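Example record for the data management plan.
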Amino acid sequence: MDRKFLPFVILAFLPLLVFCSKKNQLTAFEENGLYGYKDQNGKVQISPQYSIAYDFNENGVGFSFSKDGWVCIDPQNKVLLKVFPFDNGPDYFSEGLARFVEGSKFGFFDASCKKVILANYDFAFPILHGFSLACNGCGSESDGEHSTIHGGKYGLIDKTGKVIVPIEYDFISEINPETKTVEVSKGNTKKQINLP
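Corresponding structural encoding:
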């Protein structure tokens, strides 16, 4: 083959390669009050068994509500993780990460349902300005519609799970994005910590 035609051959097959490498995006469907998933050809891939189901995302995973709560599943209906419920649905992604629960501990996962930060915390707030406020020894108290977190010790972790502020403080203020600082207190002692 003449080498001057090689770029054209590659360009001609490139769309086919992209199409073939695209993750399997299944679509949720309802039957007799339960939800399952069908492929692009309408063939049932996962039989109806969920109370609620969202279409699979571009990363090839779907979020469904089962007797165990919100879960993230793959195309073979394997549960990848149990998603933290928020506002009657799966947790929202904030700065590319959302929360999951393993046992009674919190961690974070990405849009492919890959665990990015292991479940090592009794509670973790959504990522904000690159950090999550996490606590151990804290508890949740419901007021009927909402819950509040109380007690325990608090610290900050970054988006990789690295502990930036040790989980040993009674209180941590909101991050000041302009100065990249937080105020912390332990007992009667208060101080300001600079963030990376």
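Summary line stored alongside the record: Residues 21-80 form a domain with the Thrombin, subunit H fold (CATH 2.40.10).
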